Amino acid sequence: MSEVDAGGMPGPPIEANEAIEAVELTKMWSPTAGLRPVSLTVAAGEMVVVRGRSGSGKSTLLALLAGLCRPDGGSARVAGAAPTGDTPWAKVALVPQVLGMAVELSIRENIVDAAAGRPDEARLAGLLERLDVAPFAGRRLGEVSMGQQQRAAVARALVQVPTVLLVDEPTSFQDGRHADGVVAELHRSAAAGAAVLVATHDPIVVAAADRVLDLQAV
Ligand SMILES: Nc1ncnc2c1ncn2[C@@H]1O[C@H](COP(=O)(O)OP(=O)(O)O)[C@@H](O)[C@H]1O
Ligand SMILES: [Mg+2]
Hints:
Bound molecules: adenosine-5'-diphosphate, magnesium ion
Largest sheet: 5 strands, parallel
Shape: globular
Distance between the termini: 32 Å
Number of strands: 10
CATH architecture: 3-Layer(aba) Sandwich
Radius of gyration: 17 Å
CATH class: Alpha Beta
Strand content: 25-35%
CATH superfamily: P-loop containing nucleotide triphosphate hydrolases
Order of helices and strands: EEEEEHEEHHHEHEHE
CATH topology: Rossmann fold
């Protein structure tokens, strides 16, 4: 057991073996917008869905866990540490809702970058094939569709098996066949030991989850 704290306030004890743990984590961007306090755990090998209406704080929750913004209250531990924005992809990988690929690089270069330029080539080839990214991997960002870009963002997060995988609406631009492919890769990474947390309201993704957490609208 270990104590974590947010802003000097002692938090409740947290089990050290959970890959993602949040206790009463909250961030309000304004009095009426943000994430109400939420507590959750995701263990290694588990795929958990966070579901909630648009504006309920799903992306804010993932940004907090990725260390991209600071909470107003509560505490979190992700892959054994308090979230920081500079954790290596091998520990904490993110598929953001806004996909965040570099425009000057090819799709393949974007993906390889997440493995610090040294991907496992066999793993990478399989991933690109199964996600149907291979046909456009040599193109730049401006030359691919949003759906293609989104699958590339999934490949980027999974070019290594991360300890923690945070995924924001990963099927929002996919047709049914490609959505199934994305879900299969999320499952595969959980089976390989990742703790997977997915924000979504897509029934295809929800059906594949081990557990579903419903966020209350603010
Ligand atoms: N950076 C920000 N600045 C101000 N308000 C924000 C910011 N990010 C999100 N919000 C607001 O917080 C609420 C929750 O947003 P978000 O976490 O994106 O919800 P969801 O992902 O569930 O749609 C929304 O009302 C949104 O407009
Ligand atoms: Mg969102």
